[in-house]
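Just curious: can you write whichever protein you like plus the matching structure tokens?

***
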Amino acid sequence: MTAFAKRGWLFLALAVAVPGAAAAFTAFNRLNVNPVDAATFEVVGKGATNGAEYWCAAGDFADRTLRAGWTDRIYIARGRGPSETTGRRSAVQFTLSPEAAGIVPAEPSLRLNALEVGDNMSVQAAKGYCQVLPSRRF
């Protein structure tokens, strides 16, 4: 079993065991991150959330909760759409394991706001967007 799979199962077990785990993690930028399944997590948007904010929350979650390495890649498993975990209008689903999520990684690009399935970047790059977000969020 890979290190990610172990972390994923642990996270899923904790999310199921903890009552009210719908908001299991609040990222640096105050966006909620919720487990979808053992391989996928969802960043739930607020208002007009942009790509940098989604990537920031995904990077923060991958770093602090999943303990992913700086060079591990985060992949979009489902683009912007309704939240599966909260019912809110806008959320993006991410994974550290494209094989487990059943997606094909895209070539790395600079399309920050495209938020398309397969788009990816390193944990370090994603978390770097936390430093450039507008101060209106904090």
